[in-house]
Amino acid sequence: MFGRRKRERVGIWPAAAVGGAIAITLSSFNPAMAESPAGAPITIGFSMPLTGGLAVNGTSGLLAMQIWAEDTNNKGGLLGRPVKLVYYDDQTNPSLVPGIYTKLLDVDKVDLVVSAYGTNVTAPALPVVIQHNKTFMGLFAMDVNEEFHYPRYFSMLPVGPDPRAAISEGFFEIIKANKDKLGLKTIALAVDDGEATRNTADGARANVKKAGLNVVYDKTYPPTTTDFTPIIRAMQATNPDIVYIASYPPDSVGLIRAMHEIGLNTKVCCGTMTGPQSTSIKTSLGPMLNGIITFDFWLPAPTLRFPGVMEFLQRYQEQAAGKGVDPLGYYLAPWAYADLQVLGDAVEGAKSLDQDKIADYIRTHTFKTVIGDVEFGEKGEWKKARLMTIQFQNIASTSVDDFRDGKGEVVLWPDQYKAGEPILPYSSIKH
Q1: Which terminus of the chain has fewer Cβ atoms in its 10 Å neighbourhood, N or C?
Q2: Mean per-residue pLDDT for 183-211?
Q3: Residue 255 in contact with residue 221, Cβ under 8 Å?
Q4: What was the pLDDT predicted at 35?
Q5: How far is CA 190 from CA 351, 426, 429, in A?
Q6: 304: left (phi over 0), alpha (psi -120 to 50) or beta
Q7: What is the pTM of this model?
């Protein structure tokens, strides 16, 4: 019912978790760093998509969390006690998630809970967590607390107080900046009918109105879709100036391949595709990514090298090498590490495992993490958004080196991180 159970010893990841991945053993303990933690472990429970469509990122997030646990134990644990991760593979299946969190809380009796990676497998966990009055850290979950306004929920996603509109804001700012020059008037929208993509598309539609665009196509497709050529053909038939797509990793790959098979003729593409941020998807698509404009949350640009992040990534990449996980880890790994940094610092700051005290501490403090300062506001979202809109440019091959150190992605927005200009129209770009 719950998927294959993972070993609970910190730092061990069975090979069965990710299609033949080898066990990952983290760095050994240095006794000079701190006194060894003692007593019963503080347990942190979660599900994680280690198989299925989100495994491309979930496996990276798990490794980052394991590194955090090892680092924390090397520094003396939390409240002087060791920490232990208790996790299950949710198989990217939202229907498994409530049962997993019920087991974590009622059977495993974990002390703390955090979410899986991704909206679609975080949203079904929240009602269970609310029933148990636990503090809950969401990891890359898009506006899942909109309905509940649960005061113990906090989101590790830099979308700010208006998350649905924020994630596509930069895309539409670029459209507005080029609207007259390129004659941008019409837009076609294709949306995966899942929780995350519906939420981002809601925000995109608000941004469409602000940009004064005429919608010529706006349809959803089932998350189980495997043939995307009819979708691209239907969009192409409306002759849109702009194509906006809200997609999850498996369908992003299928859509991009269909775009190239058909020869998508549009001036600007593609909105808020999730998936191309991950190294394995980048290297599977290579030059087919050229010209696509989408979001990203972090790249190793000089202005984004927050204290500790490059050191963490060096350790992550050493552990990830040859293990079947994202070899660079830019997209999710620092955020998964920071997710547990916040929770751990809150436990230490509150000097307690009391859920109200932990939540109050998170709500009232700024946290120094590997992805910079983190501060929470309404609904547990970030007080201020910190997103980037990027365009894939000048990718020549499918080598991982074409994407190392942020190569192949040019930050277009916001101005404080801007590194270049968009190459438009999309249909003129060599793929």
Answers
A1: N
A2: 97
A3: no
A4: 74
A5: 48, 17, 22
A6: alpha
A7: 0.89
Contact 388, 296 (CB under 8 A): yes
pLDDT at 301: 87
| One-letter identity of residue 384 | K
Task: Report how far residue 205's alpha carbon sits from residue 192's, in angstroms, rounded to the nearest whole number.
Answer: 14
Q: Report the distance separating Cα 17 and Cα 96, nearest Å.
A: 16
* Residue count (the chain): 431
- Higher-scoring residue by pLDDT: 30, 389: 389
Residue by residue, DSSP assigns 84-100 as: EEEEEE-TT-GGGHHHH
In order of 218, 257, 282, 307, the CA distances from 326 in angstroms are 33, 21, 10, 22
The H-assigned helical ranges of 26-74 are: 55-74
Q: Which domains are delineated in the chain?
A: 15-158+305-380 (3.40.50.2300), 163-296+393-428 (3.40.50.2300)
H or E segment and range at residue 283: helix 279-285
pLDDT in tens, 25-79: 333 334 444 578 889 999 999 999 999 999 999 999 999 999 999 999 999 999 9
Distances in Å between the Cα of 14 and the Cα atoms of 104, 144, 170, 245, 315 are: 19, 30, 40, 35, 20
How much of the chain is in helix, strand and coil states, percent to nearest 5?
40, 20, 40
Q: Model confidence over 81-122: pLDDT tens digits? A: 999 999 999 999 999 999 999 999 999 999 999 999 999 999
- The Cα-based distances of 350 to 138, 339, 343 in angstroms read 20, 17, 10
